[in-house]
Each structure stands twice: as C-alpha cells, then as structure tokens.
Specification:
Elements lengths: L2 H15 L4 E6 L2 E8 L11 E10 L5 H17 L10 H8 L5 H13 L7 H14 L21 H9 L4 H18 L4 H10 L13 H11 L6 H10 L10 E3 L3 E6 L8 E6 L4 H5 L19 H18 L9 H12 L6 H8 L3 H8 L5 H11 L1
Antiparallel strand pairs: 1-2, 2-3, 4-5, 5-6
Amino acid sequence: MTLFQNKLEAINKELKIDKAGVTIQNRRNGLYLRAMLPDKYDPDWTQLKQQRISIRLTAEDTNLIKAKKLALKLSSQKISRLFIWNEWLADEEKLAAQKKSLKISDIYKAFEDDFWSGIVERTPKKKRNWKSIAQYLAPRNKLTKPTSIKLEHHKLLTAEYIISTVKKFKTKKTRSDMMKYCLRLARFAEIPDLKEVEKFSEKLENYEPKTREAKDPELMYNTVKELRSNKRFGWAIAAIFAYGCRVSEVWTLKPLEGHIAECTNNNKEDVKMKLKYCYALPQEYVEEFDLMNVQRNIEFLGVENYDAEKAAAEGYAMAKWLRDYFADKEEKFQLYDLRHYWGIKSTKSDLSTANAAKSMGHSLKIHEETYLSTFGEKDAREVAAKKL
C-alpha cells in the first residue's frame, strides 16, 4: 500500500469506530463519499441504497482532512434526515437529477463518457473492449444491416423493452451477450425496474461455447489451391492455411527463409501488440502456394504501422468473398477453420506444444484445451508411424 492508501484506510477506520455510516473512496484519482442514501430522483428514507457522492477533491494527502470533515457532515445530515441531494451535487448533476432521462440515446452517451472517464491512453485492448460493447448497444448507422437487431435509441430503457429485444436474438450466444450488455447499461442508469431485468437475466440459460468441429482437410486444401490465383485474397487464404495466423494478422505477415514468418500477435488478452513467429505446416506449402511471393491489397509491416480498422475491413471483405464462393456448394468452411485446422495439425507435427501455442499467439493452456483434446487413437497411430 502507498502512504496515501494507508492514511485513507486509517481515516475510514476512525469513521467506522464513530459509526458514521460513511466511507471515503478513491475512484479514478478523485475522492468520493459512499453511504446508504435515498434515491436522487425519488427520495424515500424507507428505501435506502449504497450511493456515491463526488466531493470534487483529488486523491491527495492534503485533501484527506477535508474529505473526513465532509464525511462527518454527511453522517450528521443522515442521522437528522436533513440530507438533500441538491446541496451535494455539482450544477450539471443537479440538472440531470431534475431532468433524469430514461431515453436510450441519453443513457448510452453518459455510459460511453463514463467508460472513457479518467483514461489517459486509449490502448488497443480498451478500444476492443468498447467495440465489443458498442456492437450491441450502439445506435444504427449507415453501415448497419437492415436485418440486424439494434437498440432503438429514441425509446426508453425499460425492463419490458430490454427483455423483448433480447428475445429477438436467435442464438444462445447472441441472447447471452445482448443480455449482459443491456443489464450493464440498466445498472448504470439505475432504471426503476432493474430487478425485473436481473431476474430475467438469471433465468436466461448461460451460454456455453460449442467446440469447433474440424472441417474436411481435403476440402480446405482443394479450395485453397483453387483460390490461390485470386489477386486480392488468394495469397492471404493460402498464408492462413499454411501458417495458422489469424485473419487480422495475415495483412502483417512477412514470410522468412526457413519456412517461418513474422507477423503481429493480435491476442485480445495482450495490453500491447507484439510480434510473433509462425511455422509453416507442412513446410512444403511455402513452395507449393508460392508464399514468398506476397500479393495483397493492404499490408502493415511492424506493430507501429498496424491499422486495426483497415485490417478488419479487408478481413470482412475476404470473408464475404469466401462465402460467395461457397454460395452454391453444399460443403463449406469459414476462414477461421483454416487456422483451427493448423492447430490440429500441430499436435501431429514435430513442433512442441509450447512452440505451437507461440506460433498461434495464445497461451499454452488454451492450446492444450483446444487442440490436444482433439488428439485421438487414430492420430496417435499416425504419429507413431512417422516417428517410432
């Protein structure tokens, strides 16, 4: 603990001994008072809930004595029931309290502001977190598909509206995701019928990801071979098949001598993007698919040159190109299946599990859980025939 944290903890212990019913909190480098208080918009002393009050003091040693005095003042007002929210709120908060809006557009804007509040640097990980949220909660725009289910931002955020919207989603995963983010938005806004939303969320069956089934290796090989001549995406699809990189990484991939390649590691768990080295499996694919002859419309060599939005746009275009190719065919696969198959191939190769995990750019634990579980008797016999 820092000296400041020690002092803050000591003051809170004193307040507890005095039975003040108020604690001082350090939140985003600002000091807040936390106590059981009536609702801001519908004060009722018989229905109290834990709430924070910003006292507009920075988290510094010199402000702790002021904060304690304000905590004791709040405690006194609570006991005498002379507490009035307007005396503690900043002008903009008073206005918000007087004109609290349950309109989704207003709540979403405040929610977004709160998400980025106090963030000094918008890291790639933080941006990806917000993108995941906005995917479900953001309003429609010109790029939104007409069939997409989105929150209608001109409407009010109520339990009835949230539940009816969540029910429109067809799969367990999308229902679960939409419920998770709507509940987060509802809690942020403290909507009156929040408990109804929470009850529905509890009843909603938890989503358990399905294990991805391996596609037919022959189908993937023949498809990649046929599509290799495409000037825009032919090299990229062959590179994913050979090196097992992510679609978002293939625009950064640089083949090197020795049947390896360098590319960015776009692991969502990493705070900062790094470089990684991928192995070709089998090595013959480098020559067979002419992978040293790089052909693509966009490329970002090096971490500092990576453009996530452009990479995503090219990835979406590539996925559509593959879907169009399979439109009149019964058997098909997605781009990610090529990477998944590389992971399965790695369990039967000379690569160690650790090196295979590094090549794919994820943890050893994930690699073992995802790919070693696919290793069966047939695979064991195949490896034994090669090595023993």
